């Protein structure tokens, strides 16, 4: 998204990007960024929470209207949950955001990728 935003900006079209990975996104040189400290993939709010999503999108519109220089980052005040356990667990075996169905799909995709890699190794 950073590259696309910079290309659009060079053509005179102002942009705002939304991110959950502040360090990665800021290093990519986004012209304007709205950061929300939520799990990856939820940069514009909690699923099915229209009020939360609207508030985060409005932060982006406000940034677009008020930014006076490139490279601005707005940190939204929203919190995912009352405690921060999700940050500790997100990359652990517990992975509190992965449903059983999603995990089964992920494991199937990993297995297909392993099989494809093994076939490619035999073909070379």
* Total of DSSP H or I helical runs spanning 4+ residues: 5
Using the CA coordinates, give the radius of gyration.
19 Å
| Helix-strand makeup class | mainly alpha
Sheet with the most strands: spatial strand order = 1-2-3
Helix content: 40-55%
Distance between the termini: 35 Å
The ordered H/E elements are: HEHEHEHH
Overall tally of structural domains: 2
Counting copies of identical and different chains, the oligomeric state is single chain
Give the overall form: extended
Mean pLDDT across residues: 86
**In percent terms, what proportion of residues is strand?**
5-15%
Uncertain stretches of 5 or more adjacent residues: none
Number of strands: 3
Most strands sheet: 3 strands, parallel
Report on the structure:
The structure is a single chain. This protein is mainly alpha-helical and 124 residues long. The chain folds into two domains: 1-80, no CATH class; 82-124, no CATH class. The chain has five helices and three strands; from the N terminus they run αβαβαβαα. A three-stranded parallel sheet has the order 1-2-3. Strand 1 (17-19), helix 2 (22-27) and strand 2 form a beta-alpha-beta unit. The two termini are 35 Å apart. The model has no long low-confidence stretch (mean pLDDT 86).
């Amino acid at each position: 998204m950073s590259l696309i935003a910079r290309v659009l900006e060079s053509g005179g079209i102002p942009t705002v990007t939304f991110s959950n990975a502040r360090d990665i996104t800021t290093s990519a040189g986004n012209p304007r960024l709205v950061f929300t400290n939520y799990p990856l993939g939820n940069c514009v709010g909690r699923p099915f929470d229209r009020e939360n999503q609207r508030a985060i999108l409005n932060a982006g519109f406000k940034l677009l209207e008020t930014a006076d220089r490139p490279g601005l980052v707005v940190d939204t005040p929203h919190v995912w949950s009352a405690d921060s356990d999700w940050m500790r667990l997100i990359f652990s075996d517990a992975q509190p955001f992965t449903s059983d169905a999603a995990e089964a799909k992920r494991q199937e995709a990993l297995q297909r990728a392993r099989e494809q890699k093994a076939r490619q190794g035999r073909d070379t």
